[in-house]
Structures are given as C-alpha cells and as structure tokens.
Amino acid sequence: MSLLLLIPDGVGVRNFLREDFLRRAVRTGPVDVLHPIPSAVTDRYPALALAGVRAHELREGPGPRLAALLRASLAYAQMYWADTQSMRFARRVPVRGGLRARALYGAARVIGAGAAWPGGLRALDRWHCAAAAAAPEVAHYQRLLETLRPRVLFCSHQRPVGIVPPVLAARTLGIPTATFIFSWDNLTSKGRIAAPFDHYLVWSEHMRGELLRYYPDVRPAQVHVVGTPQFDPYVDDTLLWSREEFCARIGADPARPLVCYSGGDAGTTPEDAAHVAALLEQIRAGRVRGRPQVLLRPSPVDPGARFDEVRARYPELLYARPQWLHTQPGNWARVLPLPEDTVFLANLTRHADVNVNLASTMTIDFALRDKPVVNVAFDVADPPPFPRPLWEYYYRFEHYRPVVELGAARFAHTPDELGAYVDAYLRDPSLDRDARRRLVELEVGAPVGTAGTRILEALGRIAA
Question: What is the DSSP secondary structure assignment for residue 133, as one 8-state letter?
C-alpha cells in the first residue's frame, strides 16, 4: 500500500507525524506526507526523515470566491439541518470583520437555511466541489498525485479548508480517499465536513452513530471504528519518567499532591485565569487539605499572556506552557506541536493527582489514567461572557452530556464546591472510578495503544 498522508494542521501533526506510526506505515509501502510545517523547522520532526517517507509542503490559496460562499453556506446548512444545541449557539454568533466578510456570511446564512435538508445539502456539496475545482491548487495536486500514484489518500482532520484541493484532485484520478474524525465534539459542535470522502475513520461506535445520523448520505460500510491515536502514547512505557524526574522538570515537590488545571483557548474559556485564582484561594484558605500544588497548562493555541497577572499574584502557581510552535500567531492550523510535548503530556496525565478543566477533552485524557476530574461550572463575570451561565452552555452540548449523565466528573457550581471536590478526590481517588471507566468505553472504541495499527489496517482494506 502506497499512502498519501494529508496533514493540514497541528492536531494532525500530533496524531500522525509520529515515528511509531510512520515506521509501521512504511512497512506496507512508501508514504508521502503533505504537511503544514515551515521548512525552517522541519528538522524538529524526525519522522519526516524516516526511510520510505517523502515530505511535501502543503500548498494553500484563497480559492474562488464562489467556492468560499458555497463552503460557508454548507456550514450553515449543516448547522440548521443537524440543529444541535452547540450549533444553535454557533448560528447566533454575530459575523465580525469588514463589509465583504459580513456580506458573504450574511448571504451564506440565508442560503444555508434554505438548503437545510438532505437534498439541499447534496446540491450545495456538488456546487461547492465544482466551484472549488477551479482553484489552481487542484491542478497542482493532480500533477503531484499523477507522479506519486498513491493507493489511498488519508486526511488527518476533516474540517480545514486546505484539504479540499488535494481531495478533489484524488477523486478526479480515482484514488480512494479517507478522513479521520479527529475529536469527540466535531460532529455535533462544528460545521460541515469540508470535502466529500469515500471513507471515514472514527473513534467509537458512539461516534459512528453520530456520523450516520448527521450525514445521512454516508453508508455504514464507509465508516470504520479505529479508536484515536492521540492517546496511544499513554501506554508507551518508554516515554515515562519517574515522579521525581517529572516534578523536578516542573519545579514541584514530589511528596505533595499535584493538581493540574488544563486551560482552553481564550475564545471558549475566557475566564480561565479567574478560575485558576479561585482554586488557589481555596487552597490558601485551607479548604483543600494536603498542601496541594497547582500546575497550569494552557491550551496549545493560547500564547499564555492572559495568565501573567494570576501568576504574579500567586507565585506558588506552577506553569507549563505546551511545547507547540506558533508559526503564524492567531492561526489555529499553524500552531504545531513538537514531539517532546507528547512525552510531557503522557507524564503529566500519569503524575497529576487531579485535573480541573472547563468542558475539555482533557477529561478523557485523565479518565484514561483513572485520574479524577473536576469541571468548572461557575461564572465569575456578571453578566457571564456567554449568552447564558456556563452550566447551561458547555455542559448542555451533545458531546459533553455523557460526562454529565455518567457522573464521570464532578461539576463545581461555586468556588467552594471547586475546593470541596478537589479535596474529596485527593482524599479518595477511587471516587467515581466506574463512571470514568464507562466514559472511556463509550468514547474510545478500541484499546488504547492499538489505534495506529487499526488505522493502517483499515487503510489497507480501502486501498485493496
């Protein structure tokens, strides 16, 4: 099997541009990687230099204006058709930017509302593909693929617009295409899958059901349950440090409990700094016993400056900025993880005793380690930064409801509850253990550590 691996952004780099995955892939044939890494830093990624791997920088362009309008219309049509709670909120977000952007998205909203039915979505999809095919990047990728002749194109993320030209080029050449649904919330809280694919690789039967529900033209045979590779490093013992070594790296005392606060990006969790301060106040007041330490790890896309004040006010706060390169500040797709960040995260989830976050995927990361999680569910600002209180916002989104319904985390509605729940979990880490296990079984549909192998097996069947 010769494979074309299309990686449009940082999360794809994290999941698939790994030596263990690519070493297995090249055993079945050559691997060509289309990637977003600037040439100045490619030497930081040893996987690109493996024998049998050929690297090609991803080429992107603005594309035809009609394609942009139809793409935005498809996103709105999907949000009106699926009509999940998070999509209803997204539809109400006002359009920002200049007159041209407001006009484009205003028109797209109207077109999308009128096309929010299966036949309308199919028609918009065809029109979008026809308009996007006029982009010069499509011709560029047709020439490249005619030279490379891969047996299958596999895309690591289903939503970035930059994937459209290579996928359309592969379709014109009869090359099968497959994509990975990269996160548990993407099908219920994001817009439309950016391009039509022949096959879809998903985490679990739960995610498979969501895909078939919200994309009625997808047939069951096109969907493959493979797990997710982002958790595979957690079972690689060669990556692990002792608690003493880990604590030495972050400046912590290995004899004291460690609480990790996992931040989100500033747009979705704007009150992170205030929530960290509330946790530290609970500890200073003695409401959390055992003198626990708090380590703040911001989101990889967060530059971290918004935490400067809380770090100055609470010098005891430990801080570990993710090791991701901000190659184009402010551009999600161009924030790229270094391989060493994967090692750090594997050790953080192992050695932290409790995690605190606001409706984050890190709830699953820590549940996989059987580590208790407290979710922040109180607002600090009045009025709250979102249209309604946090508890009525993120914790009602479809992807997060299983966490609530299973009781896989505890939800702090006040600062005092935050302190009380952290204290309870530090005293008895086995609390809610069964619920955490059931959450993992629901969301992660394959044994951790096997996703890479299962993905390559699925791609082999598709290529054949």
Answer: T
